[in-house]
Design goal:
about 260 residues, mainly alpha, 12 helices
Length: about 260
């Protein structure tokens, strides 16, 4: 609820800066102006409604989240040097992933083989990096923004990509709670852009569910990894069959 409240306040500041009225928002959502006023008063917007209002003002909801976090002064990413420190220490990286998923000190201690002094030392390092605040009785307060991300092609993303290539796709995806879909088709650039927006919305929905489930008991939550990717790609085995024009076009798209 606090996050929705902060998002709505950020949205109000965007509307004010653009001299946009509740009447214009009402037309966008196909509601009455009085209904919009009640929604702002009660801070009662769905993710889809926020997304539509953002589109009206010409911004992505991710930009609204970023604005919200800037107002709250929470950490959205680390420096390359900080990521390198974490990436170079497997134990620290494991603990970092755990705290970002809101594991408690006791849950980490019970799940992994760290001794209590070792775990205190590792969480103290994360405290120094401003990822968390280590409170009395080893309580962990997460200091990062909900839209916190690793640096694109940075030290930690590089570690995860290597693990994905070596480990993730060796699974057979046969369990009931697994899913694997491969799509192949031809899209216009407009359709490509629309599909990428849908991927971004799906990623946000995953984050929302992750946030909502944080209140559940530890043994009712399970670790999952989702990969969403879209790129121009053809099987290398088909390359010898490309004519010169097609091969040149393929090289241009890959530049």
């Amino acid at each position: 609820m606090a996050q929705v409240s902060a998002l709505v306040e950020a949205l109000k500041s965007v509307l004010k800066a653009g001299n946009l009225t509740y009447a214009e928002v009402a037309r966008t959502l196909e509601l009455s102006e009085s209904s919009i006023k009640r929604k702002f008063s009660r801070q009662d917007f769905s993710l889809l409604e926020l997304d539509r209002i953002c589109a009206m003002v010409g911004m992505e909801i991710s930009e609204l989240v970023k604005l919200m976090e800037e107002k709250r002064g929470r950490l959205q990413h680390l420096t390359s040097e900080q990521e390198t420190e974490i990436a170079d220490d497997l134990g620290l990286l494991m603990v970092t992933v755990c705290v970002l998923n809101r594991w408690t000190f006791a849950e980490i201690l019970g799940f992994y083989t760290f001794s209590e002094p070792e775990l205190i030392q590792l969480t103290a390092r994360l405290d120094r990096l401003k990822l968390i605040e280590l409170l009395p009785n080893n309580r962990i307060k997460l200091l990062v923004a909900p839209n916190f991300n690793w640096l694109p092609r940075g030290p930690i993303e590089t570690v995860f990509l290597r693990a994905i290539q070596q480990d993730f796709f060796t699974a057979r995806f046969e369990q009931e709670d697994h899913q694997f879909i491969v799509l192949n088709g031809m899209l216009s650039m407009a359709s490509n852009a629309e599909f990428r927006r849908k991927m971004e919305r799906l990623a946000r929905e995953f984050d929302v569910l992750n946030q909502e489930d944080n209140g559940l008991p530890f043994d009712q939550r399970h670790g999952y990894t989702v990969l969403l990717a879209l790129r121009d790609w053809r099987y290398r085995l088909f390359t010898p069959y490309l004519n010169k024009e097609s091969a040149a076009r393929k090289r241009k798209l890959q530049e």
